[in-house]
Amino acid sequence: MQVHVRYFAVLRERAGRGHSSINVEQGITVGELYLSLFPPTELGVLPVMYAVNQQYVKSDHLLREGDEIGFIPPLGGG
User: What is the number of domains present in the chain?
Assistant: First the structure.
């Protein structure tokens, strides 16, 4: 099935683009998709908030055909 992913802040830089359409297996969660796109490094995993169809969800949220996913990393400011 196909989902649409939006990348924000540092994840946009890591992905090299602001969005993409991705084919994924049925039954994948938003957290599993995140880890497949941004595997842990020696520093661990960058914590993010997950949004599906513009609603915040937990990592175990099951994805469906056509969902729009946003991965939102912590933002710094000053």
Answer: 1
